[in-house]
Fold this protein.
Amino acid sequence: MAFSYGPSDQHPGWFTWNLADPTRFNAQTMGDLVVREEEVPGGKRQVRLRMFPERRHSNLLDAVHGGVTLALIDISLFSAMRLLLNGDAAGSVTLDLATQFIGAGRIGQPLDSVCEVLRETGRLVFLRGLVVQDDETVASFTGTVRKPSRK
């Protein structure tokens, strides 16, 4: 199994979303991640992926580095695909990711990427979302993920 997914002991109501291999990018760069599925008005479902920014995630302005925000978004595409569609996140790839930076993320406070599926086809998943911290929007995004090849 590629992911360590299960109830988080440290964050009730959340689930761990970490790679089983701690030497890979997610663990080495992002640290521990937690995720949960949420229902929003109108019955739509979304996935909230949370990271915990530390000094190592900062830029020279003491804000969350844009590359870290992009990595959080990219990882959230796969967590949404997995939780909302029961998709194969480990065998999929990002085809495109468009991001608009709107504000700066703060170090020492949880940073969330909230993602929804817009459409699923035979090979593609179209997603969009926001990166938020408290009540502030840090970024908006759209992305496309290609599902694994059928063998």
